[in-house]
Amino acid sequence: MHRLRFTAGPLDGHRVEVTSVLVLGRQAADLDIEDPQVSRRHASVRPTGDHLEIEDLGSLNGTWVNGARVTATVRLGPGDRVRVGDSSFEVEVVGTAVRAAPTEAGPAPAPPPPLAFSPPRQRPARRPGVATRRLTPTLLSFGAVVATAIALVLYFAMR
Description:
Layout: E1 2-8, E2 15-18, E3 22-25, E4 31-32, E5 43-48, E6 51-56, E7 63-65, E8 68-69, E9 74-76, E10 81-84, E11 87-93, E12 114-115, H1 135-157
Protein backbone atom coordinates (compact mmCIF):
# COMPACT_ATOMS: atom_id res chain seq x y z
CA MET A 1 0.00 0.00 0.00
CA HIS A 2 1.18 3.54 -0.76
CA ARG A 3 0.74 6.85 0.96
CA LEU A 4 1.55 10.48 0.32
CA ARG A 5 3.62 12.35 2.93
CA PHE A 6 3.13 16.10 2.57
CA THR A 7 6.35 18.08 3.00
CA ALA A 8 5.14 21.62 2.17
CA GLY A 9 1.88 23.55 2.02
CA PRO A 10 -1.28 23.48 4.16
CA LEU A 11 -1.07 19.70 4.69
CA ASP A 12 2.62 19.74 5.71
CA GLY A 13 3.39 16.76 7.97
CA HIS A 14 0.22 14.81 7.12
CA ARG A 15 0.14 11.39 5.51
CA VAL A 16 -2.65 10.19 3.23
CA GLU A 17 -3.07 6.53 2.29
CA VAL A 18 -3.97 5.90 -1.34
CA THR A 19 -6.29 2.90 -1.64
CA SER A 20 -8.31 4.06 -4.67
CA VAL A 21 -8.39 6.96 -7.12
CA LEU A 22 -7.67 10.19 -5.22
CA VAL A 23 -8.42 13.55 -6.83
CA LEU A 24 -6.35 16.40 -5.39
CA GLY A 25 -7.73 19.92 -5.61
CA ARG A 26 -9.12 22.99 -3.94
CA GLN A 27 -12.83 22.13 -4.33
CA ALA A 28 -14.92 19.14 -5.45
CA ALA A 29 -11.94 16.83 -4.83
CA ASP A 30 -11.33 13.75 -2.70
CA LEU A 31 -8.51 15.57 -0.88
CA ASP A 32 -9.00 19.31 -0.45
CA ILE A 33 -5.78 21.33 -0.44
CA GLU A 34 -6.38 24.92 0.66
CA ASP A 35 -3.65 26.31 -1.57
CA PRO A 36 -4.66 29.16 -3.91
CA GLN A 37 -2.19 27.91 -6.54
CA VAL A 38 -3.99 24.54 -6.73
CA SER A 39 -6.85 24.23 -9.24
CA ARG A 40 -10.31 23.08 -8.17
CA ARG A 41 -9.59 19.60 -9.56
CA HIS A 42 -5.82 19.65 -10.02
CA ALA A 43 -4.49 16.09 -10.31
CA SER A 44 -5.49 12.45 -9.91
CA VAL A 45 -3.44 9.82 -8.06
CA ARG A 46 -4.37 6.15 -8.45
CA PRO A 47 -2.88 2.86 -7.32
CA THR A 48 -2.07 0.39 -10.10
CA GLY A 49 -0.57 -2.85 -8.87
CA ASP A 50 2.65 -2.22 -6.96
CA HIS A 51 2.97 1.51 -7.77
CA LEU A 52 1.01 4.75 -8.09
CA GLU A 53 0.21 6.84 -11.16
CA ILE A 54 -0.44 10.58 -11.28
CA GLU A 55 -2.21 12.55 -13.98
CA ASP A 56 -2.67 16.30 -14.25
CA LEU A 57 -6.34 17.22 -14.79
CA GLY A 58 -5.71 20.32 -16.90
CA SER A 59 -4.50 22.55 -14.07
CA LEU A 60 -3.14 25.99 -14.92
CA ASN A 61 -0.05 25.80 -12.70
CA GLY A 62 0.74 22.20 -13.57
CA THR A 63 1.77 19.09 -11.68
CA TRP A 64 5.49 18.46 -11.23
CA VAL A 65 7.21 15.12 -10.52
CA ASN A 66 10.87 15.26 -9.47
CA GLY A 67 11.16 18.74 -11.02
CA ALA A 68 9.62 17.87 -14.41
CA ARG A 69 6.16 19.02 -15.49
CA VAL A 70 3.66 16.21 -16.04
CA THR A 71 2.20 16.12 -19.57
CA ALA A 72 0.83 12.57 -19.46
CA THR A 73 0.19 9.88 -16.86
CA VAL A 74 3.38 9.31 -14.86
CA ARG A 75 4.33 6.28 -12.77
CA LEU A 76 5.34 7.15 -9.19
CA GLY A 77 7.69 5.14 -7.05
CA PRO A 78 8.83 5.38 -3.44
CA GLY A 79 10.68 8.64 -2.77
CA ASP A 80 9.32 10.49 -5.81
CA ARG A 81 8.60 14.15 -5.05
CA VAL A 82 5.42 15.73 -6.42
CA ARG A 83 4.47 19.43 -6.40
CA VAL A 84 0.98 20.82 -7.01
CA GLY A 85 0.79 24.60 -6.56
CA ASP A 86 2.79 25.52 -3.46
CA SER A 87 2.16 22.09 -1.89
CA SER A 88 4.58 19.15 -2.10
CA PHE A 89 4.49 15.51 -1.10
CA GLU A 90 6.61 12.38 -1.33
CA VAL A 91 5.46 8.88 -2.17
CA GLU A 92 5.97 6.28 0.57
CA VAL A 93 5.35 2.54 0.64
CA VAL A 94 3.62 1.54 3.88
CA GLY A 95 5.76 -0.83 5.92
CA THR A 96 9.10 0.05 4.31
CA ALA A 97 9.75 3.44 5.90
CA VAL A 98 13.07 3.67 7.74
CA ARG A 99 12.78 5.17 11.22
CA ALA A 100 15.28 7.74 12.40
CA ALA A 101 17.57 6.63 15.21
CA PRO A 102 16.91 8.22 18.61
CA THR A 103 19.07 11.23 19.38
CA GLU A 104 20.57 12.39 22.65
CA ALA A 105 17.51 14.59 23.17
CA GLY A 106 15.25 11.52 23.07
CA PRO A 107 13.33 9.54 20.48
CA ALA A 108 11.99 11.17 17.35
CA PRO A 109 8.41 12.49 17.63
CA ALA A 110 5.68 10.25 16.29
CA PRO A 111 4.39 11.25 12.84
CA PRO A 112 0.77 12.44 12.58
CA PRO A 113 -1.71 9.63 11.86
CA PRO A 114 -2.80 9.05 8.24
CA LEU A 115 -5.75 11.14 7.12
CA ALA A 116 -9.00 9.39 6.42
CA PHE A 117 -10.57 12.66 5.26
CA SER A 118 -9.47 16.21 4.64
CA PRO A 119 -8.12 18.14 7.64
CA PRO A 120 -10.29 20.93 9.07
CA ARG A 121 -10.57 23.77 6.58
CA GLN A 122 -8.70 26.97 7.27
CA ARG A 123 -9.40 29.61 4.67
CA PRO A 124 -6.19 31.44 3.74
CA ALA A 125 -6.36 34.98 2.44
CA ARG A 126 -6.80 34.92 -1.34
CA ARG A 127 -3.90 36.18 -3.37
CA PRO A 128 -4.35 37.92 -6.71
CA GLY A 129 -3.66 35.81 -9.77
CA VAL A 130 -5.50 32.70 -8.66
CA ALA A 131 -5.76 30.26 -11.56
CA THR A 132 -9.58 30.52 -11.74
CA ARG A 133 -9.65 34.33 -11.74
CA ARG A 134 -7.79 35.41 -14.84
CA LEU A 135 -8.49 38.79 -16.43
CA THR A 136 -7.95 37.83 -20.08
CA PRO A 137 -11.09 35.63 -20.52
CA THR A 138 -13.21 38.34 -18.89
CA LEU A 139 -11.88 41.06 -21.17
CA LEU A 140 -12.30 38.89 -24.28
CA SER A 141 -15.93 38.14 -23.36
CA PHE A 142 -16.65 41.82 -22.72
CA GLY A 143 -15.03 42.76 -26.05
CA ALA A 144 -17.19 40.25 -27.92
CA VAL A 145 -20.37 41.67 -26.35
CA VAL A 146 -19.37 45.27 -27.19
CA ALA A 147 -18.45 44.33 -30.78
CA THR A 148 -21.81 42.59 -31.24
CA ALA A 149 -23.69 45.62 -29.86
CA ILE A 150 -21.85 47.99 -32.24
CA ALA A 151 -22.53 45.71 -35.21
CA LEU A 152 -26.27 45.61 -34.38
CA VAL A 153 -26.45 49.40 -34.00
CA LEU A 154 -24.77 49.89 -37.39
CA TYR A 155 -26.96 47.26 -39.04
CA PHE A 156 -30.23 48.85 -37.90
CA ALA A 157 -28.97 52.41 -38.53
CA MET A 158 -28.38 51.59 -42.20
CA ARG A 159 -31.93 50.24 -42.75
